[in-house]
Amino acid sequence: MSSAQIIDIREEAVDTCLREILQDTLKSSASNGHMISMPTLLLWDQKGLQKFEDVTHTPEYYLTNDEIHILEEYSSDIAGIIEPNSILVELGSGNLRKTKILLDALESQEKDVEYYALDVSKLELERTLAQVPIDTYRHIRCWGLLGTYDDGRRHLLENPAWREKKSYILSLGSTIGSFDRNDAAEFMKSFTSLNDDGEDGTKPGASGKVSMILGVDGCKNGDRVFRAYNDPVGNNHKFIKNGLSHGNNILGHEAFREDDWTIKGEWDDHSGTHTQFFVTTTDTTAEQHDFAEGDKMLAVKSVKYDEQDRETLYDAAAVEEKAAWQTKDKTYGIYVVEDEN
């Protein structure tokens, strides 16, 4: 079986960039006394991607099951809105078992589509793309893109061939929820605004408008959400704690003594947000930063968007919803949005 080509689009090595961000974060937080917010990229090395795959198979992690249910029920309809001869770029592709449902639907509709899986781990891209039977596709062509979201955005903006085609940015798994609400709107704008002139003054072609296809979690049942991120087997906590191991690898030494840390999840009903923290179990130090027992570092947030929240998000991002498919209880959905201009 042939494997998909992987294109390195990184502007700079992820590890080098992440090392600088991590060092600056620890240094600035030590001086101003604020809680440290760890860069979320720490979670997504090869081992982190594999551990998150374990999370997606955890029964309590409803997000994956809900999304698969929607894709299985509505894949033909979702594929139906994707234009022939277009580009489909998936942000943070990870395991492709969900995406393959959509690719199979596109193939069955005989639509010529270029699919690009964007992720930060070359080894994981190689592993997951090998699971897509590209030899059996006549209409779908697959590539891997090695890089960050910023690299993918720049590649889309600077590639004239891409700008002549209709592009769809696919973001599943409620990735939008990992941003603060204001940052989520800016994140969406950064892609939908690619409809504007390029940096070289070129304009997108007649078909070149960018749409986003977003998986969004709107569940605000605190018990259900808490169980999803704090499962009894501990898969989610293992995934989060691997961020410390990755941090040590990035820094080149054991800055974080992993036995001195645990993971704690908290649901805030008022903000509709679940937050996961690294929490010290004893007095410890990291990169000359002193931590007392019980101190916290922010690992990642998971913001939930019900209907009203989505409308607020769309307004802030200056986009409009073009199509929607939801679970029966309407707590999870896949939405197509475009620049409202």
Description:
The protein has about 350 residues and is an alpha/beta fold. The chain contains eleven helices and 14 strands. The protein is globular and about 60 Å long. It starts with a strand and ends with a strand.
Largest β-sheet summary: 8 strands, mixed
Which regions are unreliable across 5 or more consecutive residues at pLDDT < 50?
Answer: none
* CA-atom Rg in angstroms: 20 Å
Rounded average pLDDT: 91
Contiguous helical run count? 11
Strand order of the largest sheet: 1-5-4-3-6-7-14-13
Give helix and strand order, one letter per element, not per position. EHEHHEHEHEHHEHEHHEEEEEHEE
Beta-strand portion reads 15-25%
Q: Could you give a short description of this structure?
A:
This protein has 341 residues and is α/β, with parallel strands linked by helices. Helix content is 39%, strand content 25%.
Secondary structure topology:
Layout lengths: L4 E4 L5 H19 L3 E2 L8 H11 L5 H20 L4 E6 L5 H12 L4 E7 L2 H8 L10 E7 L2 H10 L1 H4 L3 E5 L9 H12 L17 E8 L4 H8 L5 H17 L9 E8 L4 E8 L3 E3 L2 E3 L4 E8 L3 H11 L1 E8 L5 E8 L2
Parallel strand pairs: 1-5, 2-12, 3-4, 3-6, 4-5, 6-7
Antiparallel strand pairs: 7-14, 8-9, 9-12, 10-11, 13-14
Helix pairs in contact: 2-10, 3-4, 8-11
Q: Any descriptors?
A:
eight-stranded mixed sheet, 14 strands, 11 helices, 341 residues, four-stranded mixed sheet, alpha/beta
